[in-house]
């Protein structure tokens, strides 16, 4: 198994955690505000990650800290969009709109970076968009306009996350940037921002029930700490556009969790959409040219 394929499999596990996170966020938001929840998630992940890997964090350089500050700041907008989106719109709408990252990554790369995407990436992105629409939208493929505020916040989150993926790819391409340190310190930056805003806009408090405690702890450790550290490391061996396609599996996993824990049953159209999205992932893994992958090795 080559390095890009291993990285992609790691990112699939990250996506699984984020698919679970929609349900857990919905549960947690019944007890606390979005800023408070995100402060617990990111600061908890930062503290746990720091304590378990203190030696690896010593000797961090300015370049790593610079990108940690930049990417952590972008993550604030990602999670303002995603968390408030879940709060103010339907889970179906939020699942579709947050997954639009797969579309925004190549658009930003084309318009800002003048980077031409591979033909198979364009094909896979198109497949993913069709799959997302079939999985999450209504039978007439309409979005509930009554939830416009939440929908716009989800789009903000998806756009910010596309920027996050591109910045992370750029950061880990620098030899002096340590991907593990970047993954940990960006959590601390985001957590501090969220904590400040929780005191400004909310009344922070500890979780009030075992169910909420369990949800917050799982979100903090697996959906935040493990997820973002693994993402930073894995992006040494793959591209932002590739990662965006993998992350379109997020609403698929969210739908599976909703089926088992919330009793939601999908339509045949939705299941077909999930299959198309899985097929899009396989398209990205096929080497149609027969040439060696350019991201098999990490930084030059």
UniProtKB/TrEMBL annotation:
<keyword id="KW-1133">Transmembrane helix</keyword>
<feature type="domain" description="EamA">
    <location>
        <begin position="149"/>
        <end position="284"/>
    </location>
</feature>
<feature type="transmembrane region" description="Helical">
    <location>
        <begin position="37"/>
        <end position="55"/>
    </location>
</feature>
<dbReference type="InterPro" id="IPR037185">
    <property type="entry name" value="EmrE-like"/>
</dbReference>
<feature type="transmembrane region" description="Helical">
    <location>
        <begin position="67"/>
        <end position="88"/>
    </location>
</feature>
<protein>
    <submittedName>
        <fullName>DMT family transporter</fullName>
    </submittedName>
</protein>
<feature type="transmembrane region" description="Helical">
    <location>
        <begin position="149"/>
        <end position="167"/>
    </location>
</feature>
<feature type="transmembrane region" description="Helical">
    <location>
        <begin position="268"/>
        <end position="286"/>
    </location>
</feature>
<keyword id="KW-0472">Membrane</keyword>
<feature type="transmembrane region" description="Helical">
    <location>
        <begin position="94"/>
        <end position="113"/>
    </location>
</feature>
<feature type="transmembrane region" description="Helical">
    <location>
        <begin position="212"/>
        <end position="234"/>
    </location>
</feature>
<feature type="transmembrane region" description="Helical">
    <location>
        <begin position="7"/>
        <end position="25"/>
    </location>
</feature>
<dbReference type="InterPro" id="IPR000620">
    <property type="entry name" value="EamA_dom"/>
</dbReference>
<keyword id="KW-1003">Cell membrane</keyword>
<feature type="domain" description="EamA">
    <location>
        <begin position="7"/>
        <end position="136"/>
    </location>
</feature>
<feature type="transmembrane region" description="Helical">
    <location>
        <begin position="179"/>
        <end position="200"/>
    </location>
</feature>
<feature type="transmembrane region" description="Helical">
    <location>
        <begin position="241"/>
        <end position="262"/>
    </location>
</feature>
<dbReference type="InterPro" id="IPR051258">
    <property type="entry name" value="Diverse_Substrate_Transporter"/>
</dbReference>
<dbReference type="Pfam" id="PF00892">
    <property type="entry name" value="EamA"/>
</dbReference>
<feature type="transmembrane region" description="Helical">
    <location>
        <begin position="120"/>
        <end position="137"/>
    </location>
</feature>
<comment type="similarity">
    <text>Belongs to the EamA transporter family.</text>
</comment>
<dbReference type="GO" id="GO:0005886">
    <property type="term" value="C:plasma membrane"/>
</dbReference>
<keyword id="KW-0812">Transmembrane</keyword>
């Amino acid at each position: 198994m080559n390095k890009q394929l291993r990285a992609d499999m790691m990112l699939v596990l990250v996506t699984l955690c984020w698919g679970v996170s929609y349900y857990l966020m919905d549960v947690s938001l019944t007890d606390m505000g979005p800023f408070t929840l995100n402060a617990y998630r990111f600061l908890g992940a930062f503290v746990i990650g720091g304590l378990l890997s203190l030696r690896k964090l010593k000797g961090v350089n300015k370049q790593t800290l610079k990108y940690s500050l930049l990417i952590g700041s972008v993550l604030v907008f990602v999670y303002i969009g995603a968390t408030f989106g879940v709060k103010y719109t339907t889970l179906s709408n939020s699942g579709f709109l947050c997954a639009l990252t797969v579309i925004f990554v190549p658009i930003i790369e084309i318009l800002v970076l003048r980077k031409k995407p591979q033909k198979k990436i364009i094909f896979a992105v198109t497949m993913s968009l069709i799959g997302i629409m079939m999985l999450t939208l209504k039978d007439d493929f309409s979005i509930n306009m009554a939830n416009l505020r939440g929908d716009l916040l989800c789009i903000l989150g998806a756009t910010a996350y596309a920027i996050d993926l591109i910045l992370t790819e750029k950061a880990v391409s620098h030899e002096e940037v340590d991907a593990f340190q970047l993954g940990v310190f960006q959590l601390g930056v985001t957590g501090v921002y969220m904590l400040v805003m929780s005191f400004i806009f909310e009344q922070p408090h500890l979780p009030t029930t075992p169910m909420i405690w369990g949800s917050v702890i799982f979100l903090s450790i697996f959906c935040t700490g493990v997820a973002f550290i693994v993402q930073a490391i894995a992006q040494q061996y793959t591209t932002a556009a590739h990662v965006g396609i993998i992350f379109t599996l997020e609403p698929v996993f969210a739908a599976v969790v909703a089926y088992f824990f919330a009793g939601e049953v999908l339509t045949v159209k939705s299941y077909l959409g999930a299959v198309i999205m899985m097929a899009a992932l396989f398209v990205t893994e096929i080497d149609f040219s027969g040439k060696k992958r350019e991201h098999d090795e990490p930084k030059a």
